[in-house]
């Protein structure tokens, strides 16, 4: 049997999925790693912890392939979290941990770049909104706040590029990941001269940019032995997780939106050319040079649900453990008892600042409308609705750029929750379809590998392998509540924005790392 492996490099875990020659899942393994938040704005990962998780996950599914019985691994291909940055010295010693998309320490330099007017100029060429998530801003932060690192830095990579360097000694970045750095000109398909000038980074400090269909062979012998793989197995670069999520749920036709809620979230559509928002609200990232994903990302998705579990539902977490249940299933059951609209309670989910639609790294979360009648169940439903309202607000901006959305394909952790799926259908007032293939990112990565190796000619071949889909229709009984609350949610997000800078400044001044969980 011939197999392929899709690797999903996420913010808090790495998953490896083994597919057979019919693109059916045979085995999978998932290993996590912590996200370090030692200060208010920090969000870092440890390189060695990521590498161990990667090798454990990949090694586990390789063993399932039973290569000793004559089976083969035809390729390993990647879907990767975007916007990460690692600085290395001239001898390739790391000078930083992985600075992730969620790190917002560059907020002051980001605001200065926006105010200068150069920010919009760079956005119009790179398609990456000016925000602390982007390596562009992170480099400005290093330059100004960590000059000892910036001056020693000879190379900059992201999380996936680090793995390829460690496995093969390569120094390359696919154009999909590059298009999310804020430094890559999406019209010229090269590093942007103005972005380089603003940061003071030289082109030779950045990796060579390559097609997502590029691959490496000749893995370091000792690592091949650890993984149980032949040294000549092709490792395909693949693409960013956002673009591949659209491909993985077959949301590649005009007007078909993909919504993903994992740790963070996004809503995206595919275009055959780069599309720039005159107001700078949406991103444009490459899937490949012929397919461009336009959308908006949100910082606050499943991580906010996890915050609610850990801080509001500790007793239920213990109960679920005793009963052998998933605590999230128990929580959604509790939330389902509350009517749509949470009895007039709104929640703005900006626990980690926010990207789209407000692009404000100083944003903070809040409940609005609390009264004596509200319970923890109301709080929980409001949390889920708040995440959904926020994505809906992004969709309104997206429609201004690409036109009306015709349908929604859903993926990510929330796609497993019937309550949350129905909530999206009701708030968007559109059918929400959930493909049977939950491992959409890994499947899309494998399809990219098949095209890279010449096994298929067209990415649209993926539609054969998505499997059956479940579609959730909007429930008119819930329209009235959501139609009344959505405008309040949107207006309130704008009104609160005038005070976000002040409350964020207070937290940075008075909340010490030791005060945090």
UniProtKB/TrEMBL annotation:
Residues 3-248 form the Carbohydrate kinase FGGY N-terminal domain. NCBIfam families: gntK_FGGY. It holds the Pfam family FGGY_N. The gene is gntK. Its EC number is 2.7.1.12. Residues 257-450 form the Carbohydrate kinase FGGY C-terminal domain. The keyword Thylakoid does not apply. Keywords: Kinase, Transferase. Signal peptide: none annotated. This is Gluconokinase. SUPFAM superfamilies: Actin-like ATPase domain. It comes from the Bacteria.
């Amino acid at each position: 049997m011939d197999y392929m492996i899709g690797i999903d490099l996420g913010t808090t875990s790495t998953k490896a999925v083994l597919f057979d020659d019919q693109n059916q899942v045979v085995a999978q393994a998932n290993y996590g790693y912590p996200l370090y938040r030692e200060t208010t704005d920090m969000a870092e990962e440890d390189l060695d912890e990521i590498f161990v998780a990667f090798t454990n996950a990949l090694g586990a599914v390789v063993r399932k392939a039973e290569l000793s019985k004559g089976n083969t691994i035809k390729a390993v291909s990647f879907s990767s979290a975007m916007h990460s940055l690692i600085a290395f010295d001239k001898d390739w010693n790391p000078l930083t941990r992985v600075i992730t998309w969620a790190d917002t320490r560059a907020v002051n330099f980001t605001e200065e770049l926006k105010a200068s007017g150069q920010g919009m100029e760079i956005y119009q060429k790179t398609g990456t909104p000016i925000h602390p998530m982007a390596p562009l801003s992170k480099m400005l932060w290093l330059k100004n706040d960590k000059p000892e690192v910036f001056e020693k830095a000879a190379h900059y990579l992201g999380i996936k590029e680090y793995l390829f360097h460690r496995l093969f000694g390569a120094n390359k970045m696919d154009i999909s990941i590059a298009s999310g750095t804020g430094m890559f000109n999406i019209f010229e398909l090269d590093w942007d001269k103005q972005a380089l000038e603003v940061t003071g980074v030289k082109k030779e400090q950045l990796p060579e940019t390559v097609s997502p269909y590029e691959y490496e062979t000749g893995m370091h012998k000792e690592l091949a032995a650890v993984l149980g793989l032949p040294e000549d197995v092709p490792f395909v670069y693949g693409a960013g997780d956002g673009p591949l999520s659209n491909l993985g749920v077959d949301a590649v036709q005009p007007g078909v939106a993909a919504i993903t809620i994992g740790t963070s979230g996004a809503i995206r559509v595919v275009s055959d050319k780069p599309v720039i928002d005159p107001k700078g609200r949406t991103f444009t990232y490459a899937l490949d040079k012929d397919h461009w994903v336009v959308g908006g990302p949100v910082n606050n998705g499943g991580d906010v649900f996890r915050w609610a579990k850990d801080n509001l539902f500790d007793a239920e977490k213990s109960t679920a453990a005793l009963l052998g249940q998933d605590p999230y299933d128990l929580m959604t059951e509790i939330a389902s008892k509350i009517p749509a609209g949470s009895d007039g309670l709104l929640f703005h989910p900006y626990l980690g600042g926010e990207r789209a639609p407000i692009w404000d790294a100083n944003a903070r979360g809040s409940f609005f409308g609390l009264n004596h009648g509200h319970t923890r169940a109301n709080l929980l439903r409001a949390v889920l609705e708040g995440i959904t309202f926020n994505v809906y607000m992004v969709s309104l901006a997206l429609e201004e750029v690409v036109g009306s959305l015709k349908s929604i394909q859903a993926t990510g952790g929330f796609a497993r929750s019937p309550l949350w799926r129905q909530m999206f259908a009701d708030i968007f007032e559109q059918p929400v379809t959930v493909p049977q293939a939950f491992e959409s990112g890994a499947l899309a990565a494998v399809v990219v590998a098949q095209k890279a190796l010449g096994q298929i000619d067209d990415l649209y071949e993926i539609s054969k392998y998505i499997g059956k889909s479940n579609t959730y229709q909007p429930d008119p009984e819930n329209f009235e509540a959501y139609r009344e609350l959505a405008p309040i949610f949107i207006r309130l997000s704008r009104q609160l924005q005038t005070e976000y800078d002040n409350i964020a400044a207070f937290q940075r001044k008075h909340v010490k790392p030791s005060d945090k969980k």
